[in-house]
Amino acid sequence: MMTRAQQDVLLAERRGFINRLEKLASRELTPEEQAQWDALTNKVADIDARLIELERELSVDPTMDPQQNSLRASMGRRSAPLSANFRGGPSDGDLLRSWLRMGTPGEKAEDCNVLARRGYALGAKALEFRAQTKGTASAGGYTIPVGFLAEVQKAMIAMAPIRKIARIISTDTGETLKVPTNDDTSNVGAIVSEAAEHTEQAMTFGEISLGAFTYSSKLLKVSNELLQDSGVNLEAFLGESLGERIGRAQSAHFMTGSGSGEPQGVITAASTTSAGSATAIAASDLVNLVRDVDPAYLDNSDSVAFVMHKSIWAAIRKLADSQGRFLVGDLGGGAPPQLLGYPVYMTNDMDSTIASTKKTVLFGNFKHYAIRDVNSLVVSQSSDRWFEYNLTAFLALQRTDAKVLQAAAFRTLVH
Length: 415
Prior knowledge:
single chain; 11 helices; six-stranded mixed sheet; five-stranded mixed sheet; Major capsid protein gp5 fold; alpha+beta
């Protein structure tokens, strides 16, 4: 029967083989070195099998009855290489390759204890990273498990805030959508005398067409090794990230798009209110901006709002009276920012500096800005096109157009 001393000898021998394999793993192998690798891997696998048998034998306690010993022996077999749990049984070198790729598997506490006794360096740095195409950490290797939080911290920027307050129209097809318009604000009624003839006053209608521009996230090719080895839900993360690429493109167009070959931006169509200074914003400028939008457009408070860059909002927050008291109070409690009783939305797609000709603040009723979406955003993947490279391609698409329905509902502050 084997003893703990024999176990220690095997572990020491195993560690020696592992050290030699680590040196080989640092570079491309020659045919002779590959043969050494295979031989060493087989030796380690043989030692692992002997260690497993030793652990099973050492689990037998002569003071226990045969039934109890049988139970302990079967529990000892639970310490078989973790690769057996998902490959139906370990092949030569499976366990070693798993360790070289991922460090110590952390399936259960008892597994970690067994692996530590068998010579694993718990928490060891991984020796191989899988990546989008080339195995570099920044291209995806950082998502391979080496004892890390199973999520990806993603850089974010403010985008498409107008979607929160604009009029969203969803259609099943992309055929041109006609939206009738009418501006009868210049026509007024009149008092007439008894039996007098009534003057005729016709209405003038217009029409706005909403098409469907196809937005693409641009193609992303990812190695299948990365998809298999990543410790996060990489498909979900990629889908969300590609959708945000489209969101950033749309956000810019919703603000300043020309309306020709792309959506029309609100700022493009809105009338302007002149600021008192080319280099500063005064409280009176903001009051005048609201004044210049007809009160008829301000009834729907859910859609009436200010939109500006965060740097402009910071400048407005610093406005103070003659006593040094800030004109914009601290709302606190996580409440959304407000200005003159209306919510403020931030976007990176407006001017961030106060200078001549800059349009720094947008105000209006965004119910009169229509965003037309054809169905919903679609994220597709294909493993066929680049199958010879073992790559999967991801692509997000969305068909969208947008236009201002009533330009009088908006004003921008221009310096």
